[in-house]
């Protein structure tokens, strides 16, 4: 009754390959598609529907989106077209989710460490600047140079969906890089919308907005009922932005940046577990409500809102936006005019070529001068394909069309350019990824250790010049890893200083609910020089690795517990574990322990004698 987490038996690494080719159910296939692909598919379908509708019934399309809606009573009324309702109101929710992601990345994500952030930040800035310069050069003299904002931003939804659809076999590290880049890209795009495309500015309503934003910040200190307060203040801030002339969607960003984000606190988690245990022992409504509230409050409202809003944004708001904005009338005359339009070509060149040069060129330069971190998976072909995908500028590009261009005919040319550029960027990325796969055959996939052992970074037991090395990707709650640790100990007893052993993290959270927490705790222990002692303690009690158990182990080892608890939530600790996880993904590791013997993947039994035979067969590393 004391342990509410359930440890399942993880896949046996000796037999998991036998199940790789089994037939999956339809439900499993649907789950495997993922939200990113489904969202991109919905966006693409809505775009196609908009084009078909606009060409099959042009008057109907224009009349529907131009229909007026009046909201309010007496003299307090808002008059919106349906198109404006989507672009000004619903898209504020989209930009709100963008703001939540920005806030999270800078607080506890990839952008907390400059060493991690420098590559995506520089790539994003170059990807904002170079497309704008190319656009201005092409449209110079036409009177539309001020529309350069059309080519600055990458569509994150399409980017992630396309990467899942056509990207490399294991895109984990590339995905993290592109998401961090997209966050910085979004910051630039939102800033430009606010500073460049705001007309008829009236400062007085912004005072009301500022008061509302102060209220949003202090709402976090209320003991209860925060949801209705957040909702009321959000409406007030949005109306104030609308009245000021600043595009009201930016209210969503401003509010999101003030929403608190934090990693779960150990004491909050323990309190939630205690309430859940109490409810389990004495089920009643009061305990159920208390346990549910405690569990909810242990997760930051930022992450709760992201989780709650992302399906609506992906499956409803963005497809509606595409349906309202992608309705380009396509006739021979219009296409011919678009092909002759400098605006169309400025957008195509800016998005396709400018984004590619900016992102890929800047990362190549950083790699050349050895600035920033490039882990396994951030290969030149991967970065080239990712840079090409950045040319998909769909959502924000279409959003800026109405803000930057007044002439309906030129707006049509711009929309043709945005759609064409997005299609070309997708096809270019597909070609790059497929060529890269053809150059690097799949039979070597995951057989070679992708990141060499480094005593400055890895957890190493044994001398650096040892002729034999075993690298283990493992999980502290895995029973097979416990067995492997015993085997490796026997190997060490026989080989002594001729063996170098390296541990890397690959927590299987699907089977072991506390595996990630254990991995992060071991990294926090490493900051006090106690990694292997902590590792042995975790293996010694695999059933009890809840937050209180982890702190108990630190206490028993005589560690500085206050420092240990602070380090548990540090970006360096979480980033260190994530690096190993991404490395494991880059090699297709789906079961643990996965062992590498002198740099090559070990297949088969991992008892002591089998490992010694494998080491001797591989030959010494240092000749």
From TrEMBL:
GO CC annotation: plasma membrane
Its job: Na(+)/H(+) antiporter that extrudes sodium in exchange for external protons.
Domain of life: Bacteria
Stored PANTHER family: NA(+)_H(+) ANTIPORTER NHAA, SODIUM ION/PROTON ANTIPORTER NHAA-RELATED
Domain Thioredoxin: 429-620
Family: In the N-terminal section; belongs to the NhaA Na(+)/H(+) (TC 2.A.33) antiporter family. Belongs to the NhaA Na(+)/H(+) (TC 2.A.33) antiporter family.
Gene3D superfamilies: Glutaredoxin, Na+/H+ antiporter like domain
Name used for this protein in its record: Na(+)/H(+) antiporter NhaA
Annotated compartments: Cell inner membrane; Cell membrane
Pfam families (UniProt xref): Na_H_antiport_1, Thioredoxin_4
Keywords: Antiport, Cell membrane, Ion transport, Membrane, Sodium, Sodium transport, Transmembrane, Transmembrane helix, Transport
Catalytic reaction list: Na(+)(in) + 2 H(+)(out) = Na(+)(out) + 2 H(+)(in)
Biological process per Gene Ontology, one example term: regulation of pH
InterPro entries in the record: Na/H_antiporter_dom_sf, NhaA, Thioredoxin-like_fold, Thioredoxin-like_sf, Thioredoxin_domain
Keyword Transmembrane: yes
Membrane-traversing stretches: 38-60, 80-102, 114-139, 145-166, 178-198, 204-222, 229-259, 312-336, 343-366, 386-405, 417-436
Membrane topology type: Multi-pass membrane protein
UniProt GO MF annotations: sodium:proton antiporter activity
Record lineage: Bacteria, Bacillati, Actinomycetota, Actinomycetes, Micrococcales
